[in-house]
Design a protein that fits this description.
Layout: H1 4-11, H2 15-47, H3 58-75, H4 77-87, H5 91-97, H6 99-120
Amino acid sequence: MNEAEPARASKRASLREMVTDSIRYWEPRRLIYNAALALIVLGYFRVSWPASRSAFSLNGVLFLFVLAVLANVCYCTAHVADIFAQFSGFRELWLRFRWMLLLLGILFAGIITRFFVLGFFAS
């Protein structure tokens, strides 16, 4: 063991610190994620009016609710990727650039949401 290893080991965050950091970072940004997806749904609802009015039923609202819950379950996978990356030797670099995962996740979820909404509000 060289002299740098004990110093590096003492700088490593514990699992508890990593999980706390992950929650502190990702959970406030869940609002941005949900707002982006909601804007896509509302935008296509408005553009597809009056055909989209037929989707405004109990079953339609319940279907959208289930999709929203599934989208949020998918959002939780960011915690897994974040904690995994924090365990690596690239923790400091990851903490500076994890916003890119948020951006890519929002873009990916937005594309999937668009495909669902196109079919859902189709005339």
